[in-house]
Automatic annotation (TrEMBL), chain A:
Entry protein name: Branched-chain amino acid transport system permease protein
Organism: Pseudovibrio ascidiaceicola
Keyword Glycosyltransferase: no
One family name in Pfam for this protein: BPD_transp_2
Stored CDD domains: TM_PBP1_LivH_like
Locations listed in the record: Cell membrane
UniProt keywords, alphabetically: Amino-acid transport, Cell inner membrane, Cell membrane, Membrane, Transmembrane, Transmembrane helix, Transport
InterPro entries associated with the record: ABC_transp_permease (IPR001851), BCAA_transport_permease (IPR052157)
Domain of life: Bacteria
UniProtKB/TrEMBL annotation, chain B:
Bilayer topology annotation: Multi-pass membrane protein
Localization: Cell membrane
Transmembrane segments: 6-29, 36-55, 67-87, 99-116, 141-163, 199-219, 225-242
Main location as per UniProt: membrane
Domain of life: Bacteria
Region of interest (Disordered), ranges: 305-326
Bias-annotated ranges (Basic and acidic residues): 317-326
InterPro entries noted in UniProt: ABC_transp_permease (IPR001851), LivM-like (IPR043428)
Protein name, per record: Branched-chain amino acid transport system permease protein
Pfam families the record matches: BPD_transp_2
Length: 290, 326
C-alpha cells in the first residue's frame, strides 16, 4: 500500500478521532484524578453537549461553530448541577457508590436526549464536504479545525493548571485532598470548578464527534470505553497523557481495520485497556492507580 | 376466558421474575458480598443464553451446532462459559479498585454484543438461534408454562440455598471482611485477588445460568433480545432497592422492580404512538432517578444486610467458653 494512501485513509482519520477521544479523556482523567472515581456518565454528557449544539443550530439557524460555546456553557452547568443534585450527597460514602450513581446519570441523560430529540440520526449541516488536497494529504476543513481546537483547548487547560492559583489548587487536590484542605484549598469550590471544566470538555468532544460523523443518542456511550482506555493509557490524572492516549487509541482503531475485520474496530480500545492494566497500570506517563 | 388470559400473564411474569432473580443473585455474590462492580451483566447473560442454545439446538444452516445435547448439559455449559469469560477479566482487573472492573465489564458486554452480531457462522447473526428445545415444551400451552415456572423456581431455590450456604460459611465471612476492610483482610493473610476472582466467577456463572433459562423459555435467542444497558441497569436497581448483601432482599427487589417496570410498560402502551415512544424513554429516566433516590435516602435497600455476628458460630463458642470459665 502506498504511504500516502495509509496517511489519507488511516492515519488522518485516526488523528481526528483521536483528538475527539483526547478531549473526552482529559475530562475523565480530571474526574478520576481529582474527584477519584470513574465517571461513567461522561459519554452521555458529551451526547447532551452535541445535541445542545444541534438545538442552537436548529432554533437560531446559526453555524455550528457559534453553537459550540453555547453547548459548552450548557454542559458545564449541567455537570455542576448533576454534582450538586446527586454526586455531592454521596461524597462521604465509598467512591464506588458514586460510580454507580454516575451509571444511572448516564441513562437519565440519554433518556433526556431521546425524549427531546428523538432517536433518529441527525447532522449539523447537510451535504457532503469533499476533502481538500494539501501536498497529497487529503483533509477536510472541519477535520483541521477539530485537531487545532483540541490542541488549543487542552493547551489553555494545561496553562491554567500550571500557572493560575486555581489550577494549582486543583493539582494540589489531585495529589492529596486532605493536605490541600489544610493549606486552605476549598475542596467544594475546586470540585465545582472541576465539573465546570469537565462539562466544557464533554461538550467539545461530543460536538466534534457530531460534526465529523453524525449525532446519535448512543454516540457518547460508545465513546466511553475508548475515552477510558485513553485516560488510563496516558496515566490517570495526567492531562498530557490523556491527549497522547487519545491519539494512540484513535489511530489504533482506524488502522486496526488493516489487520482485523472492521466490525471489531471498537474492540481495539478494550484490548488496549486490558493490555495497559496488565503491563503498566500507571499508564505511559506515570499516573495514579486507584 | 379473561381469567385464563390473566393467569397466563401472571405465569409469564413469574417466569421472568425467576430468571431475573438468578441475575440479581449472581450480582449479589459479586457486589453484595464482595464489592465487585459488574456493569456488564448483559454480556454474561448473553454468553449463557447462546452457549446453552448452541449446545442443545438442532442442526441449522445458519449457525454452529446441531449437538442436541440434553438441556441440563446446556445449562452447565452456560455456567462454565460465563465463568470462563469472567476469568481473564477478573484476573486483569481485580487487582485494582472496582472502578476499573466497571469499565472493563462495560467493555466485555460490548465485545460480546459485537461477536454475537458479526460472527454469523457461530451465532446465526441477526437471525439468532431458533428451535431451542424447552423442557416440558410438549405439553399444552398453559401446562407447559406452569411446568417451566416450577422448574425455574426450583432452580432459583437451589441457587439461593447454595449461595446462602456459601455466604454463611467461612468463605462468605471472609468475602465480607475483604469487602469492608481490604487492608485488615490482607493483614490476616487472605489472598484478596484470588478470593475476589472466585466470587466474580461464581457470580458470572449464576448469571450465565439465568441467560440459559431465558433462551430455553423463549425457544430462541437473537441479538435484539438483549438491550445491554437496560438489562444491566434493571438488575442493579433491583439489587440496590431490595438490599444488597441480602439474598432475600435481592429477590424482593426483583419482584418489586419487575412489576413496576412491566406495569409502566402497560401504561405507556396505552398512549398514542407519538407519545408512547417518548414515554418509553421517560420510563428509563424514572428508573435512573429511582436509583439516585435509593442511593441517597435508603442505600441499604428495603431489606438491609444483617449486621453483627450474634448468630455466628464463633460468637456462640466464645460465649460458651466465657460461661464455662465463670
Amino acid at each position: 500500500m502506498p504511504f500516502m494512501e495509509f496517511v489519507n485513509f488511516y492515519l488522518m482519520p485516526g488523528i481526528v478521532l483521536g483528538s475527539i477521544y483526547a478531549l473526552g479523556a482529559v475530562g475523565i482523567t480530571l474526574v478520576f484524578g481529582i474527584l477519584r472515581f470513574a465517571h461513567l456518565a461522561h459519554g452521555d454528557l458529551a451526547t447532551l453537549g452535541a445535541f445542545a449544539a444541534l438545538g442552537v443550530v436548529t432554533i437560531f439557524g446559526v453555524s455550528p461553530w457559534v453553537a459550540l460555546p453555547v453547548a459548552m456553557v450548557v454542559c458545564a452547568f449541567m455537570a455542576i448541577g448533576i454534582d450538586k443534585l446527586f454526586y455531592d450527597y454521596l461524597s462521604e460514602r465509598p467512591k464506588i457508590i458514586v460510580v454507580m450513581s454516575s451509571l444511572g446519570i448516564a441513562l437519565m441523560l440519554r433518556a433526556v436526549v431521546q425524549v427531546v430529540w428523538g432517536v433518529d440520526t441527525e447532522t449539523y449541516t447537510r451535504g457532503i464536504v469533499r476533502p481538500d488536497d494539501y501536498w497529497g494529504i487529503r483533509i477536510r476543513d472541519r477535520e483541521i479545525y477539530t485537531i487545532i481546537a483540541m490542541f488549543v483547548i487542552v493547551g489553555v487547560l494545561w496553562a491554567f493548571l500550571q500557572k493560575t492559583k486555581w489550577g494549582k489548587a486543583m493539582r494540589a487536590m489531585s495529589d492529596n485532598p486532605d493536605l490541600a484542605l489544610l493549606s486552605g484549598v476549598d475542596n467544594r469550590k475546586i470540585t465545582m470548578l472541576t465539573w465546570g471544566i469537565v462539562g466544557i470538555l464533554c461538550a467539545a468532544s461530543g460536538f466534534f464527534l457530531g460534526i465529523n460523523t453524525e449525532l446519535k443518542p448512543l454516540m457518547g456511550w460508545t465513546m466511553l470505553l475508548p475515552m477510558f482506555a485513553a485516560a488510563i493509557l496516558g496515566g490517570v490524572g495526567r492531562v498530557e497523557g490523556a491527549v497522547i492516549g487519545g491519539l494512540i487509541v484513535g489511530i489504533a482503531e482506524e488502522t486496526s481495520v488493516l489487520f482485523i475485520p472492521g466490525e471489531y474496530k471498537a474492540a481495539m480500545a478494550f484490548a488496549i485497556l486490558l493490555l495497559i492494566l496488565l503491563v503498566r497500570p500507571t499508564g505511559l506517563l506515570k499516573g495514579k492507580v486507584l | 376466558m379473561e381469567l385464563i388470559g390473566l393467569l397466563n400473564y401472571a405465569v409469564f411474569m413469574a417466569i421472568f421474575i425467576g430468571i431475573y432473580s438468578l441475575l440479581a443473585l449472581g450480582l449479589n455474590i459479586q457486589w453484595g458480598f464482595s464489592g465487585l462492580f459488574n456493569a456488564g451483566i448483559a454480556g454474561f447473560f448473553a454468553v449463557g443464553a447462546y452457549s446453552s442454545a448452541l449446545l442443545t439446538a438442532p442442526e441449522s444452516a445458519v449457525h454452529l451446532g446441531g449437538y442436541q445435547l440434553p438441556v441440563v448439559v446446556g445449562w452447565i455449559g452456560a455456567m462454565i462459559a460465563a465463568g470462563a469469560i469472567a476469568w481473564p477479566i477478573g484476573k486483569v482487573c481485580l487487582r485494582f479498585r472496582s472502578d476499573y472492573l466497571a469499565i472493563a465489564t462495560i467493555g466485555v458486554a460490548e465485545i460480546i454484543r459485537l461477536v454475537v452480531k458479526s460472527e454469523g457462522w457461530m451465532t446465526g447473526g441477526a437471525r439468532g438461534v431458533n428451535k431451542i428445545p424447552r423442557p416440558f415444551g410438549d405439553l399444552s400451552y398453559l401446562y407447559s408454562q406452569l411446568a417451566y415456572l416450577a422448574l425455574v423456581f426450583a432452580i432459583v431455590l437451589v441457587v439461593y440455598w447454595a449461595i446462602e450456604r456459601q455466604i454463611s460459611a467461612p468463605w462468605g465471612r471472609m468475602m465480607r471482611g475483604i469487602r469492608d476492610n481490604e487492608d485488615a483482610a490482607t493483614a490476616m493473610g487472605k489472598d484478596i485477588k484470588a478470593r475476589r476472582l472466585e466470587a466474580f466467577i461464581f457470580g458470572a456463572a449464576v448469571m450465565g445460568l439465568g441467560g440459559a433459562l431465558f433462551a430455553h423459555f423463549n425457544r430462541s435467542i437473537t441479538p435484539e433480545a438483549i438491550d445491554p444497558m437496560i438489562a444491566t441497569f434493571l438488575i442493579w436497581i433491583m439489587l440496590i432497592l431490595g438490599g444488597s448483601g441480602n439474598n432475600r432482599g435481592a429477590l424482593l427487589g426483583v419482584a418489586v422492580v419487575w412489576i413496576i417496570w412491566s406495569a409502566s410498560e402497560f401504561v405507556t402502551d396505552q398512549l398514542p404512538t407519538e407519545y408512547a415512544i417518548k414515554a418509553k424513554y421517560m420510563r428509563v429516566f424514572i428508573i435512573g432517578l429511582l436509583l439516585q433516590l435509593v442511593l441517597r435516602f435508603r442505600p441499604e435497600g428495603i431489606l438491609p444486610e444483617p449486621q453483627g455476628t450474634a448468630g455466628s458460630p464463633e460468637v456462640k463458642t466464645f460465649q460458651k467458653q466465657e460461661s464455662a470459665a465463670k
